[in-house]
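Problem 12. The chain below contains 170 residues. Write out its predicted structure in token notation.
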Amino acid sequence: MSRVQQLDEGGMVSARRAANRRRLRRRREVAHARASGDGGPKSEINVTPFVDVVLVLLIIFMVVTPMLQRGVDVLLPVSINHREQKDTGEQIIVSVKQSGVIYLGRDALTEGQLAQRLAPLLTRQPPPPIFVKGDRRLDWKTIRRVLEIVKGAGAPGVALATEGKGGGKK
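Solution.
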């Protein structure tokens, strides 16, 4: 029965009542559809945003990881009796490139500057360990001169960084 027919039958059912009935019928249909699982809220987890976040983190770690190496990159000599030590971040890294340039961390220094910069670092108690990373293509006298400078600055001991046969660095 249409709205016009209802009004024409003597006004027994008002237009407002008919509208309320239609709303009620629609609510029942929606409730039935939800109960039967046809159109209600879904409880599935959308993994696409999760995968996006994981991929972004992977890219960040891939970019940052090479920057974690301390000191300057040099070709280390290979040793047979290699003993690996963990990098705690407290060690002082002195690197000598093939060209003979000396680095303290990532700063290029002359021999005189190296001694001046090392002296205050070695006043801490206990003094931090010092690793010298010398390029394997250097002659021994260059490395020996750097070792003497480090020892003269007050270092109680110096370790030479080497690479084991398997490729691990000390």
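Discussion. The chain has two domains: 3-36, 70-164. Students who got a different answer should revisit the alignment rule from Section 12.3.
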